Amino acid sequence: MSEKSTPIDYNRLFEGIRGFKANEFIPHQRFFEELGQQQNPHTLFIGCSDSRVVPHLVTQTFPGELFVVRNIANLVPYYKKYSDTFLATSAVIEYAVNQMNVSNIVVCGHSNCGGCAALYQDKELKNLPHTKKWLELASPVKKIVEEKIAKNKISLEERSSFTEKMNVVEQVNHLMKYPYIRKRVREGRLIVMGWYYHIDKGEIYNYDKKRRRFIRVE
């Protein structure tokens, strides 16, 4: 699950800030001034925290269009009417739908997902108790995949991508257990989508519920 990275001078971050001010903010100052007064996002994007998944980049959207929450393996907590624990992702979903009135929700998984891979790597989670607990939200996916392998319906080589895709489907199912989401979907006021982003191919696949398969967006 861990990835090696080369240490980088933090000054690069400050250089980025200066570049943003000079190349983005000043040329579009009026836009940002208006944006600073209010937001009206049309889509809630639930994505993975993976550094390679950049919602605004892959959707080519502007600031103010996406309401974004990202976590390990793009998971959606089970619905609870009330909880006395701190539920960040659940709060974002609630706020986006009931307060911001978004028209769309996207659950976006991706290729080479470390969180999905960790479902099969118990030893690597030994010192990551919070991560291990969080990944319990994807435990039904692991069961589905292992049953498919046992019945020779998929190979071990296909396990990673199949897990990542089935995880998207599972998290969409979690969303549909939220009463206020289910109600809006029935009324035609909300569309819930499951996407799979193939990083090294630059392709996104949308889950077709009727055909029960991911179809490449063209």
TrEMBL record:
GO terms in the biological process aspect are:
carbon utilization
Keyword Translocase in the entry? The reply is no
InterPro entries xref list: Beta_CA_cladeB, Carbonic_anhydrase, Carbonic_anhydrase_CS, Carbonic_anhydrase_sf
Query: What's the catalysed reaction?
Result: hydrogencarbonate + H(+) = CO2 + H2O
Q: Which GO terms describe its molecular function?
A: carbonate dehydratase activity; zinc ion binding
Q: Answer yes or no on keyword Cell inner membrane.
A: no
Swiss-Prot/TrEMBL cofactor(s): Zn(2+)
Q: Which SMART domains match?
A: Pro_CA (SM00947)
**Alphabetical list of Gene3D superfamilies matching this protein:** Carbonic anhydrase
Q: What is its EC number?
A: 4.2.1.1
Keywords, A to Z, come to: Lyase, Metal-binding, Zinc
Tell me its family. Answer: Belongs to the beta-class carbonic anhydrase family.
Q: Provide the protein name.
A: carbonic anhydrase
Q: Which organism is it from?
A: bioreactor metagenome
Task: Provide the gene name from the record.
Answer: cynT_7
